[in-house]
Specification:
With 170 residues, the protein is mainly alpha-helical. Helix content is 61%, strand content 9%. It contains 6 helices and 3 strands; from the N terminus they run βαβαβαααα. The longest helix is centred in the C-terminal third of the chain and has 37 residues. The termini are far apart.
């Protein structure tokens, strides 16, 4: 007799055999993220030794779903495999030529400009914060902090601005 909440093996259908345990784990996660409960054949949590992994690297993990979810599961597996195939034939895996190198160098220059801009934004923000901290009691019209805390804060913010400026100039 089966316990409540358990599913009999008769209602499980194999929809795919993964090439390796990593692909199997990714497929299981993808199916579950899309609302299809899935499971491996056997015990996927048992770690394989390097020898077992090499011996069983071809079609190791059968992926099973409930019979009523089989069609949706197969669609999701096809979708996953199509994305995986596109990623393995991406431009990054193509050989480099002069045009591709020039394109990558241009992208790198743009990235450096972006980070330099962000560095300057950080410097300006920290300097403004140090000035506001220095004039805080006057600006907010409140009782001043103890001078030790107030000027320690100003000094720390000024040091942070100097550090950010140094990093930006690199």
């Amino acid at each position: 007799m089966s316990k409540p909440g358990q599913v009999s093996n008769d209602s499980l259908v194999e929809i795919h055999k993964a090439r390796n345990p990593w692909q199997g784990h990714l497929l299981i996660g993808y199916l579950q993220d899309n609302g299809v409960e899935a499971a491996f054949q056997g015990l996927p949590s048992v770690p394989l030794t390097a020898g077992e992994l090499l011996e069983t690297s071809n079609h190791v993990a059968g992926i099973y779903v409930l019979q009523q979810d089989a069609a949706r599961g197969r669609e999701l597996v096809e979708e996953f495999l199509a994305v995986e195939e596109v990623e393995t034939t991406s431009p990054e895996s193509q050989p480099l030529d002069k045009e591709r190198i020039a394109e990558l160098r241009g992208a790198l220059r743009e990235e450096r400009k972006t980070f330099a801009f962000l560095g300057w934004v950080a410097v300006v923000f920290l300097v403004a914060l140090a000035v506001l901290w220095a004039v805080w009691p006057v600006w907010l019209k409140t009782a001043p902090l103890a001078p030790l805390y107030r000027w320690t804060g100003v000094a720390l913010l000024a040091l942070a601005a100097a550090f950010a400026l140094n990093q930006t100039r690199r």
